[in-house]
Amino acid sequence: SVVYTFPHLTIQEFVAALAQFLTPDPGDIGKLLSEAHIKGDGRFEIFLRFVAGLSSPQAARPLETFLGQFLHQTTCRVIDWVKEKVEGQIGNTESESGKRNPLNTFHYLFESQNKALAQKTVGSVEIITFSELRLTPIDCAVLSHVIGLCDTIKHLDLVGCYIQCEGLQRLEPVLHKCKELR
After folding, report:
1. Cβ pair 37, 44 in contact under 8 A
2. For 119-146, how does the pLDDT look when each residue is reduced to its tens digit (9 = 90+)?
3. pLDDT at 53
4. Are 142 and 107 in contact (CB under 8 A)?
5. β-pair partners for 155
6. What are residue 129's DSSP bridge partners?
């Protein structure tokens, strides 16, 4: 048998995510994703983002030409898991981890590129609070994507987020949708 090793962690996590879509019996992938999400140290975040991204038909199609059809059942379960996480995390922004978790779920939503799912889960959000949480330019791009899909943002709180120029540039196109901005 042939064994491949990938010393770079990002490649390992991508291959692990890809394996979830190519395994004939994915088992309870929702349980696996939830267990990975519970780990508070962020060690599975890249894996979870890859899994969410691979649920996107635009991302899966080119890979399927080489690897074969992804299991539709797995894709549906991943989409359901992302929906559950976004809906469960959306209003929980009291603590730092309470702010980091919704931001991570916004990343999953962004990676899934599922506009219908995004509008269903965040379309009616009125308050987004990330005060005192450092936001990277990538976080700002994800937040911009989410705000762009919201119908009504009454309050956006980014006090103490240390947003740099690049992050502000990524947020700028959607800030007009916010009635109150801090």
Report:
1. yes
2. 888 888 888 888 888 999 999 999 999 8
3. 93
4. yes
5. 127, 180
6. 157
Mean pLDDT calculated for residue range 73-96 = 80
**pTM value > 0.90:** no
Q: Please give the angle made by the CA atoms of 146, 102 and 158, to the nearest 5 degrees.
A: 70
For every residue of the chain, DSSP letters joined together read -------SHHHHHHHHHHHHHH-S---SHHHHHHHHHH-TT-TTHHHHHHHHHHTSHHHHHHHHHHH-PPPHHHHHHHHHHHHHHHHHHTT--SSHHHHHHHHHHHHHHHHHT-HHHHHHHHTT--EEE-TT----HHHHHHHHHHHHH-S-EEEEE-TT----HHHHHHHGGGGGGEEEE-
Cβ neighbours, 10 Å, residue 150:
20
Residue 93 has pLDDT above 60, yes or no: no
The answer to whether residue 148 scores a pLDDT higher than 60 is yes
